[in-house]
Amino acid sequence: MAILGAIIKSAIDLRGAVVSEPSPKEAQEKVLQQLLQKAKNTAFGSHYDFEAILNSTSPTETFAATIPYHDYNKIKDEWWHKVIEGEKDITWPEVPSYFALSSGTTGKTSKRIPVTDDMIEAIRNTGIKQVGALSNFELPTDFFEKEIMMLGSSTDLNKRGSFLEGEISGISASNIPFWFQGYYKPGEDIAKIDNWDERVRSIAKKANEWDIGALSGIPSWIELMLKEVIAYNNLEHIHEIWPNLQVYTSGGVAFQPYEKSFNLLLGHPITVIDTYLASEGFIAFQNRPETTAMKLVTDNGIYFEFVPFEPKYIKEDGSLTEDAPSITIDEVEENKDYVLIISTVSGAWRYIIGDTISFTNKKRAEIIITGRTKFFLNVVGSQLSVNKMETALREVEQEFDIEVPEFTLSAVKIDGEFYHSWYLGTESKIESQKIAQYLDKCLKDANKNYNVARSKSLKGICVNTVSPNIFYEWNGKNKKKGGQVKMARVMKEEKFKEWEAFVKDNS
């Protein structure tokens, strides 16, 4: 393994030195052309005359003017229901091999997102790009000899007709290259266990047999797994059993809210690398250690457009108004929120993925995820994005020396007045009113719209503190533990009442 590690390290360093990439603008124009060319004879391509778009003087402008925006319900009702029924050549040539099941953060019935062979190849190619980027992180040669713990959903995919279905992390793990299988943990047998608690217990029992050098998965579930391993093996921290753990590849949500509680589980600092793998594709990954922002993958099967994230363009369900303007990657501005629109080799066309992003470096095409279109709290004009909420909570953590890895909130009426009602996942015993006052101050300082709302119709905020475990049990009750499951940061009134009743019954 030592010789193989040295070979891999040398190959990565060499690739980092010789690989050059086109500009994001050039790469995206080529990707759009490839998408249109391959799908022009599908039912979707014929309906919207992809041939004419390809032959127009400006395919990017004609594409945007011709194809409407699609959220999941729209594209499913008009097109993907035929794909799900097994018809071929609908929005992409032939039929997909897989469907990624995604309930997102709503807890409703799972969406079925087509995952074609072209998308599997694109995800694999982006994974290789990410491995190549490790040359920027100055990792020692022996890191490449260690095993990698990939904690996602079950790889025991469901058979439905000629298709296989599961969460994207399970689909990806079931398609790992043969040469990687010797490094991959927890291994095929444990990865197939569908029950989250049983899978984690199995990991804890086998943990002392493995030499884990890297972790990969959603922060909240990785934390729970590490706690189980630590508790089962009677440890102070995870490095007592995995001393060579050096890298954590985070994904699904921003890592920063979990950073403080995550670090408490370690014996020493490790390198954290953010990634952006969604059910619809591998969108971005952190390319260098100087920033926590992620590099958009502009040359590999996904064409991106961006809609300014402004209340006038956002419907209550998180979809876009028909007149919402889109721009291309060369037109974006740094430090401005955009709704992300994608068209992909899985036959998603001008698809509203539901995330909002901001460019931190336009030239490098580096972004951060700033929230969800559905989690934009704009009652009485407060205009609070998830990013603003999380930034304020980091200040709260620092002020009170506490950890708040989870939260949710809703706008509620109390005695005829509007309040923001927060639930913070923390083991802290600090008085909630003190936290509320400081959190309110941080939000006022960071967001002028919130400050204006607080001087008018928004009466104040109230804070309740509960154990972080309540959030994980809520997810287990409403959806499923582990995998791609994420907590809803903002809830509508009806769902918030369910949440409060759940908290009352389980506290």
TrEMBL record:
<dbReference type="InterPro" id="IPR055377">
    <property type="entry name" value="GH3_M"/>
</dbReference>
<protein>
    <submittedName>
        <fullName>GH3 auxin-responsive promoter family protein</fullName>
    </submittedName>
</protein>
<dbReference type="InterPro" id="IPR004993">
    <property type="entry name" value="GH3"/>
</dbReference>
<dbReference type="InterPro" id="IPR055378">
    <property type="entry name" value="GH3_C"/>
</dbReference>
<dbReference type="Pfam" id="PF23572">
    <property type="entry name" value="GH3_C"/>
</dbReference>
<feature type="domain" description="GH3 C-terminal">
    <location>
        <begin position="389"/>
        <end position="494"/>
    </location>
</feature>
<feature type="domain" description="GH3 middle">
    <location>
        <begin position="297"/>
        <end position="361"/>
    </location>
</feature>
<dbReference type="Pfam" id="PF23571">
    <property type="entry name" value="GH3_M"/>
</dbReference>
<dbReference type="Pfam" id="PF03321">
    <property type="entry name" value="GH3"/>
</dbReference>
